[in-house]
Design brief:
By secondary structure, the chain is mostly helical. Bound molecules: protoporphyrin IX containing FE. The site of protoporphyrin IX containing FE has 25 residues, from helix 1, helix 2 and helix 3.
């Protein structure tokens, strides 16, 4: 169970990154060209939202079963337990909140330029936070490539 969830959570990162990059580039170029916001533009934004929320669900389950999450004495002094218990959780939560806000703001705005603007700004900040919070193998935090 733990291994399956860990591999799913690790591999799903690539889908999250791909959809966020797609949504950001699409919003940036369409905003510049003054294009209409159509159902086609909603797709990358919605897929980005769904995959990040899926990561949240998998991450929350992992948080309770992972040996890398610990509240035992001295966990803040250990780079790995501090990372997964505090840093990964808080940065990812913030990123997911920003992406959700960006998506719902875009839905509420009536002007198409404002819809693209909301997706672009909120998704870009979310993506940067996610890139910073991923335990890339070169960071020595026990994470793999997928
Ligand atoms: C878009 C959001 C997220 C992404 C892209 C992401 C990505 C990752 C990656 C790549 C790993 C390393 C897996 C490996 O290589 O073995 C990982 C581990 C982990 N993540 Fe996330 N994560 C996200 C959100 C979350 C959230 C919100 C939580 C907690 C609520 C969470 C909890 C964990 C835990 C506990 C581990 C350690 C698993 C283990 O090896 O025992 N993640 N995450």
């Amino acid at each position: 169970m733990y291994e399956i969830l860990k591999h799913a959570h690790s591999g799903l990162r690539w889908l999250v990154l791909a959809f966020l990059v797609w949504a950001i580039i699409n919003a940036f170029s369409k905003r510049r060209s003054g294009a209409d916001y159509t159902a086609k533009d909603k797709r990358p934004a919605l897929f980005g939202l769904i995959t990040t929320h899926l990561q949240l669900v998998l991450g929350l389950i992992l948080y309770f079963i992972s040996p890398l999450v610990s509240f035992e004495e001295g966990f803040m002094k250990n780079t790995i337990t501090r990372f997964y218990t505090i840093e990964h959780l808080s940065l990812m939560l913030l990123a997911i909140i920003l992406i959700t806000v960006g998506y719902s703001r875009a839905k509420r705005k009536s002007e198409d330029k404002a819809k693209f603007g909301s997706i672009f700004t909120f998704y870009l900040i979310g993506l940067i936070l996610i890139l910073l919070a991923i335990p890339w193998p070169f960071r020595g935090l026990g994470g793999g490539w997928g």
